[in-house]
Amino acid sequence: MPEVNNGPGAPTERPATPNQYRTILADPPWKTNQTGRLGAIRHYPLMSLNQICALRVDRLATDDAHLWLWVTNSNFFEGIAVMEAWGFAYRSCLTWIKPRFGLGNYLRNQTEHLLFGIRGRAPIQFRSQGTWFYAPVQEHSHKPEEQYAIVERCSPGPYLELFARRPRPGWDVWGNEVSCDVAL
């Protein structure tokens, strides 16, 4: 490991730094607002809001970075709290319109949202992106492949996907269903 000379005295080792990313995409396993036995609890372990907020995502982001954070209609405000805990400021929302009814205690959900936040000075690369897109539904919690084209068009790399379910070329991943490229 390279040495750093801090002036008088013995040189010290430079601490290892993790990979840093200009764009992070995350789909947390939200425990908030889970009711009954038909939701996410049947498919994977869930995390509380406090557990998600406590992840040190801030260490993985560059000083000027983008965060794309998946939320449902019932945990929109928790998503903003997570953004803030991770060191990002909410800026906008991209809505995925699904072609079929979903679950819901009050209204039948046909949308999910990608909250967009920034850290530092991180301008968007493509200023003509609309605030919604239409894409098919796949198996439980599988987000549409269209998300990657949108994120890559709007945000600079390097890219990291948190809570990933499968690897993607050009992206690093972290999650309990993939071989991880980073430690959290």
UniProtKB/TrEMBL annotation:
Kindly list the residue ranges recorded as spanning the membrane: none
Pfam families, sorted: MT-A70
State the protein's name: MT-A70 family methyltransferase
Q: Name one GO biological process term.
A: methylation
Q: Does the keyword Transferase apply?
A: yes
Q: Name one GO molecular function term.
A: methyltransferase activity
Task: Tell me the superkingdom of the source.
Answer: Bacteria
KW Transferase (keyword) present: yes
Gene3D superfamilies under this entry? Vaccinia Virus protein VP39
Keywords, alphabetical: Methyltransferase, S-adenosyl-L-methionine, Transferase
Family membership: Belongs to the MT-A70-like family.
Name the InterPro entries for this protein: MT-A70-like, SAM-dependent_MTases_sf
UniProt source species: Streptomyces broussonetiae
